Protein 1
Amino acid sequence: MRQSRVSRGAALARLALRIGGRYVARSPRLLFASVERRTELRHDLALRSADEVAEELGSMKGVLMKLGQMASYIYEDMPLTFRAAMSRLQHRAPPMTAALASSVIADELGDVPERVFAQWDPLPFAAASIGQVHRAITRDGRAVAVKVQYPGIARSITSDLRNVGLLRRILSAAFPGLDVRSLVDELGERLQEEVDYVREAESQEMFARYYEGHPVIRVPHVLPELSTARVLTSELVSGASFDELLEWSQEERDLAAETIHRFVFRSLYRLHAFNGDPHPGNYLFHGGGRVTFLDFGLTKQFTDEDLAPLIDAVRFLVFEKDFEAFRAALERAGFLRAGAPVPTEVVVDRFGQFYGTVLQDAPMTITPAYASAIVRRFFDARGPLAPYSDVPRAYVIMQRINLGLYAVLGMLNATANWRRIAEEIWPFRNGPPSTPIGEAEARWEAGSLSKQTQKVVKN
C-alpha cells in the first residue's frame, strides 16, 4: 500500500493525466460520430475512467477510498457509470495479501492466526478503507469476524491530507457540483480517529449492550481478549447484503428502512451516540425488518447540552410553528450566525427542508430524487444563507449521518409515517407505538427498564 505523500500524490497525478489524455485522444471520434455512436463512446469512456478511479482509490485505501465510498451512495446526481464503479468500494476493495494479514495478527495477538484460532480463513470476506475482515473459529468454538487493520494506514491518511489540493481537483472532475472540500476535510479528521480499534471496540460494545435483546436491531458483541489497537474480533453474523435487499419486496425494504431510521434516531436521542458511517456496506438484513449494524469506528457521543438546541428546533418548527424560536435555536446551536441579515422565512425554507420527513403526519416515500435534493441543499455554497451558515464542529458527524440516512432510505424508496415513528423516540413526545415494530420495541424498552430497576434494587 502506498504510504508516502510523494508516491500517493504522484499516483493521483498520473490518474488525472491518463483520464484527461483518454478524452483528448477520443475527441475526433466523438466529433464525427453519429448521435447514437457518440453516446456509446462517451458511455464507454466514462465507464473506463470510473473503473480506473475506483481501482486506484481502492488500492490506496484511507481518505481516498473513503471519499469514493461516501460519494457512491449520497450523491445521486453523480453519473451512473461513476456511481456503479464507486459502489464496489463499499465492500469489495482490493485486499492485502494473506501473508501480510497473518503478520498483523502475529504482531498484535502473539502468534500466527492458524494457532491463535481453531480455524482461520486466509481469504477476507470484506475489505474496506481501514482494514479487512476474515472469518475464524475461536478455540472455544465461537464463529467470529476478525477485522485486521492495513499496516501503515495512519501514515497513509496523513499523506492524503497533505495532498488535498490535487485530490479535490480530481474528485471535482469526477463528481461535478459536489463540494469536495467539505467532504475531504471532514473525512480526513474523522479517519484519524477510526484507526484506533480499541476506541472502536468500546463504541461497538456500548451499542451492543444497549440494543441487547432488541426485536429488530442487532449489534455484534466484541471479544476483548482477541482485540487490540489493530485487530478487532467480534461475533460473526451472516445476512443479506444491501444489494440483495434491493431485490426483495417493497414491504421488506420498507421494514428494513424503518429499522435503520429507528436505529439512527434512538441512538441519538436515547443513547446520545451516533454511529457515524451509515453506508450500505455496514448493514446485514434478515427479513421482517431485522437488521445487523456493523462498523463503529466513527462514533460520536453527545451531551444533553449538545442535543438541547436540536430538540428545541424540532419542537418549534414541527409542533409549535414558532419560526422565530426555530431560528433562535439554530443560532444557539451555531448553524446560523446570530443577527444574519436574512428574513426568517428564508431561514425556514433553507433549514426546514432537512425536517421534510416529519413536517406532515402522513405516510411519505423517500425517493432518490428527494435524497439528492437534500444533499444538493446541504452543499449549496451559492444560496442567500451560505455566508451566514455553518456546520458546528459538534454536529459535523450528525450532518453526515443525516445525508447518509436519506441516501440509504432513498435507494430503498422507503415509505412510512416518519413523523409518527419520530414521535415515539423524541424525548419531549414519547408517543405511543405507531407500527408493529414500534410495539415490539416498546415491549423491549419496558423489559430493559424493568431489568435496570431490579439491578438497582439488588445493589
Protein 2
Amino acid sequence: MTIKVLEYYNPDSCMIFCNKKSDVSYLEQVLSGYGFKVGALSGDVAQSMREKTLTAFRDKKLRILICTDVAARGIDVDHVTHVIVYDHPADHEVYVHRSGRTARAGRSGLCISLITPVEEIEIKQTAADFGINFIKMEPLTNEEIAKKVSERTRVSLEQEKNHFGGQKATERISRMLPLVKELANGTTDEQMLLAYLLDRYAWKKA
C-alpha cells in the first residue's frame, strides 16, 4: 500500500514513520527496488550516513525519508508535503508529532495513515484524545493509480513540449507519428514499448 500511495500522490517531500528499525530497513529495500529514491534514518544506520541522508533531504535532493521517531528527533524541515504513518504508534501523542512534520510555515500538507482493522480502534482513540477529524478512505485501486499517473504524465509532457521550442522541433517530433500509430495499434508487446517509454519519463520526474 505504501507504494500505491507514493505513486498516486507523487509527493514533493515525504517522511514515512515506522515503529521499528526493522520496518525502516524493509521499506528502504522494497521502495528502492521499485525505483524510488529513498533515504533511511534509524539506530541501525551509521551516524555518518544519517547525516549525509538528512542533508540530502533538507536540500531537497532526496524526496522520501523513512525513519523511526527516535531517529527523526531534532529534524527541522519545513518543506515536507506528505507524512505517511506506516504503523500507528502506541503513544497517541507521538502520532501528533508525526503528523505535525508537514503543513509547516503556512504551507499545506497531508498525513496518511496506513492502518489495519486492529489499529483502527487506536486511531479512533487518537481522534478522540486530540480532536482530530480523520477521513477514512478505501484502499487505492490499480485503476485509480493508473488514471492519476496518466493524467500527471500527460500534463508534464504537454508542458515540456510547449517549451521545447520552434517549428524545427515540431517537424522533428512529427516524424515519429507513423511509429507512434504503428505501436499504438500493434500487438501488446508493441504497445508495451510505448508504455515503457512513458514509464521511464514518469520515473525521471519522480
Protein 3
Amino acid sequence: MARSARSDLKVLAFDVFGTVVDWRGGVAAEMTAVAKDLRLTVDAPAFADRWRSKYLPYLNRIRNGEMPWQVLDAVHRASLGELINELSLQSLTEADLDRLVFAWHHLPPWPDAVEGMARMRARYVLTALSNGGMAHLVDVNRAARLPFDCVLSVELIRTYKPDPRVYRLVPDLLAVPPEQSMMVASHAYDLAAAAGQGMRTAFVRRPQEWGTGKPETLDISVDIVAEDFLDLASQLGDLR
C-alpha cells in the first residue's frame, strides 16, 4: 500500500487466539498443572495441539448449519470430551474439564503484544474481532491487560469466521468504510475473508503458535507482513 492510501486508516481489528495471545503455551501450562495434581503423565503441548486441531472442524459445522449455534466455551468443552476419550484420560473430573476450558480465558499475551498494541492505539482504534464469546474475550483482555478500545465477538451474529458477516461487524458497528479498517491476524484464511469484505490486511508471523518455530504459510497477497506487533507498529507509523 502506498503512503497516501494508508493515511486514512482508522481501525485495526485483531484476531485474538494465536495472533495476540499464546493459546498453546497457556493450555499446555494448565494441562501440566492438572496432570501434576492427578499424578498423570501427559505430553501437555501435544495435548494442546490435538485439542486446538479440533477447533476449525467444529466451527465449520456450526457455520454450515450442521450443528446448532454455541459459544466457543461450549465448543471447547465438547471437543475436550472427544479428546479425553481418545487419550483415555477418563480420570479427569468434571471440575478438571472446567478448569481446562477456563484456561482459554487467561491465556498469556505474546511478549510483543501489549507494547505493540499500545503504540498502535495512539493512532488507531483497536478492536478484537474474534471467535471467542463476549464474556470469554473480556476475561482474556483483562487477564492479559490488552489495550483494546472495544470487543467485537462472533456471538453478536451467532456464526464463526470466515463468515463474511463477521468482518462486516467492523464497518457496521465502528462507523468506518471497510477500506479504513485493517484485519490483523497470523492466519491466512482470516485475512483472505477480511479482504473479501474490503478490509486491508496485515499478516503477523507467529512462529511459536504451534511450537514449531515456523509461522503459518502465507499464500495470499496482503498489505503488510510484520514480524511481530512492534514491527507492525513501526510500519504503520512510518507509512502513515
